[in-house]
Write a structure and sequence with these properties.
alpha+beta; four-stranded mixed beta sheet; globular; EC 2.5.1.18; glutathione transferase; transferase; Glutathione-S-Trfase_C_sf; Glutathione-S-Trfase_C-like
Length: 235
């Protein structure tokens, strides 16, 4: 993979994190050499705490000893720094870039909390509410895909772009929750465009090397659920 001269690139992350997957997919698409430093589940290394002292969270991209935090910011940074390598992730048109950023924020603000809310829900009622919120969010994203993709296979058009990375990094977890709960989040009847998009996205060699196996995510999700249930209630 092509890099930026002799620059040193490291990524702090964890294999199961969809936020880390965003950064890994972007780096791979842009053909950037990098060292992946795995953080252990439930712990924070000294390098992580030093690199992201504000949020103390992964992912953190370290480029020539300079840390960049927050997954969406990292993806944009990668696209801007390695301009001549791999496909452009952000659209060339300013309005299109604004649309991609808007929907990426929507994914993080609305869809992701409802998706993982199904795992954290303390009651079946709360779980059902999170499910409905997730389905409603996907319906809006289905409509957005129809407009933004303009009949092409990805949000980015003919190639995977910024918004594809933003949402696609969560496909593995969507499949895991589908298997655990016995229902479809991406449904051929209700979200046919996103169903086709998810298949195209996961069939990409770069993506397939990053998205974890469904069975492994299910196993991890059960461990996390047990931790949530055993945790003391919030005050």
């Amino acid at each position: 993979m092509a890099g930026s001269g002799n620059s040193e690139v490291k990524l702090l992350g964890a294999w199961a994190s969809p936020y880390v997957a965003r950064a890994r997919i972007a780096l791979n698409l842009k053909e950037v050499h990098y060292e992946f430093l795995e953080e252990q589940f439930g712990t924070k290394s000294e390098l992580l705490l030093k690199s992201n002292p504000i949020y103390k969270k992964i992912p953190v991209l370290i480029h020539d000893d300079k840390p960049i935090c927050e997954s969406l910011i990292i993806v944009q940074y990668i696209d801007e720094v390695w301009v001549s390598s791999g496909p452009a992730l952000m659209p060339a048109d300013a309005y299109d870039r604004a649309l991609h950023r808007f929907w990426a924020v929507y994914i993080d603000d609305k869809f992701v909390p409802s998706l993982f809310g199904m795992m954290r829900a303390p009651t079946e009622e709360a779980k059902a509410e999170s499910k409905e919120q997730a389905l409603a969010s996907l319906q809006l994203l289905e409509e957005a895909f129809g407009k933004i993709s303009k009949g092409k296979p990805f949000f980015g058009g003919d190639t995977i772009g910024y918004l594809d990375v933003a949402l696609g990094a969560f496909v593995g977890w969507m499949k895991a929750f589908e298997e655990m709960n016995g229902f479809k989040l991406l449904d051929d009847a209700k979200t046919p465009l996103l169903c086709a998009w998810a298949e195209n996205f996961c069939n990409n060699e770069v993506v397939g090397a990053v998205i974890p196996e469904t069975a492994k995510l299910v196993e991890l999700a059960k461990v996390m659920q047990a931790r949530f249930k055993s945790a003391p209630p919030a005050n």
